[in-house]
């Protein structure tokens, strides 16, 4: 029985090695190790199976030692040994099979990767993905923090963000350095809070970023006292110190920016600030926002794979701007520009 089980395992090993050699065209070191173990088990079973050679040498042993009484022959292999060997062979066979299947799947993924990269890198495909998303009317308060083009621009991007989220910071850097400079003053960016912390967002599943809520209160307190411009200045400082916000002195930074420190701290704890963050969080929840950044463009959610594709944003600026005539504002906008040449504060770099 053990011999048959191990022999079967070696048969599977031969089959899997054939797959690697002829079908996959690549060799898996882990798989070869398992197959070598299978071969070793076969050798051990053959060597330790004594029935055939016991019968052969029994007469000569009896003649050489006539005074030694014959021992009771214990069946070999025992049922326990046979069961253990069979179980080991089955386990090694399953492991080898699993590794072989994983190798095949990994190869298929590797073959598909260039195709996937080509698809997600095609702005036309991304534009079609975007256009198929449902359109949802998104409310924007008149005093909502915004940057880029003036109110009434043909494109409005709404970003749900967490001030301690590294992905959000990277996306904002892309906005500053690439997307907005190429938008030709056609894109307005509106900031929405969605802190990934259960301290002020009951919809997150875990503790998340513990400093998110305090940071959100800080930028909102700066906006209450200093308007849109001070919102972005404080946001830039928060981003710059995102690695050590636990020890960040918000009051000192507010004073440095020209704000009243005591009023700033009072505003951070005020109902007005809490309500603004709560409104953004509730809106995000209704829109099924779960991660940050979540981006909407002209009331449609942007696919995650399109976030970091400048070609997609250029295409959207051209198409959506052509389909909608920009409404020129009757008053001068206070939204700061984010172009590199602009000295006004904008998103952090």
Instruction: Tell me the CATH topology of the largest domain.
Output: Glutaredoxin
Q: What is the 3D shape?
A: elongated
Give me the CATH architecture of the largest domain, please.
3-Layer(aba) Sandwich
Number of helices: 11
Class from helix and strand fractions: alpha+beta
Mean pLDDT: 81
Tally of structural domains = 2
Strand content: 5-15%
Radius of gyration equals: 34 Å
Poorly predicted regions are 325-349
CATH-level-4 superfamily name of the largest domain: Glutaredoxin
Q: What multimeric state do the chains show?
A: single chain
Distance between the termini: 70 Å
Strand order of the largest sheet: 1-3-2-4-5
Please summarize the sheet with the most strands: 5 strands, mixed
Q: What letter string, H or E per element, gives the SSE order?
A: HHHHHEEHEHHHHEEH
CATH class of the largest domain: Alpha Beta
């Amino acid at each position: 029985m053990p011999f048959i089980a191990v022999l079967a395992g070696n048969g599977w090993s031969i089959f899997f090695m054939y797959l690697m050699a002829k079908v996959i065209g690549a060799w898996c070191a882990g798989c070869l190790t398992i197959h070598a173990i299978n071969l070793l088990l076969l050798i051990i079973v053959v060597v330790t199976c004594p029935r055939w050679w016991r019968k052969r040498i029994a007469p000569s042993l009896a003649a050489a030692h006539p005074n030694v009484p014959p021992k009771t022959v214990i069946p070999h292999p025992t049922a326990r040994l046979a069961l253990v060997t069979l179980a080991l062979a089955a386990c090694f066979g399953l492991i080898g099979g699993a590794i072989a299947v994983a190798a095949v799947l990994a190869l298929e993924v590797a073959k598909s990767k260039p195709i996937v990269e080509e698809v997600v890198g095609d702005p036309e495909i991304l534009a079609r993905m975007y256009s198929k998303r449902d359109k949802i009317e998104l409310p924007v308060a008149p005093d909502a923090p915004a940057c880029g083009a003036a109110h009434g621009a043909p494109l409005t991007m709404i970003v749900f963000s967490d001030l301690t989220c590294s992905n959000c910071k990277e996306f904002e850097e892309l906005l500053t350095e690439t997307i907005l400079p190429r938008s030709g003053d056609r894109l307005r960016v509106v900031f929405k809070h969605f802190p990934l912390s259960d301290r002020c967002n009951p919809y997150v599943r875990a503790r998340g970023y513990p400093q998110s809520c305090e940071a959100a209160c800080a930028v909102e307190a700066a906006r209450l006292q200093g308007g849109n411009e001070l919102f972005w200045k404080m946001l830039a400082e928060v981003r710059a110190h995102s690695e050590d916000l636990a020890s960040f002195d918000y009051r000192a930074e507010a004073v440095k920016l020209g704000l009243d420190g005591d009023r700033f701290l009072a505003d951070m704890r005020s109902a007005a600030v809490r309500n603004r963050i709560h409104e953004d969080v509730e809106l995000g929840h209704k829109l099924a926002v779960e991660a940050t950044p979540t981006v909407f463009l002209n009331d449609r959610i942007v696919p995650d794979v399109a976030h970091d594709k400048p070609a997609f944003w250029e295409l959207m600026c051209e198409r959506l701007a052509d389909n909608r005539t920009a409404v020129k504002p009757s008053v001068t906008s206070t939204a700061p520009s984010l172009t590199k040449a602009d000295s006004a504060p904008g998103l952090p770099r």
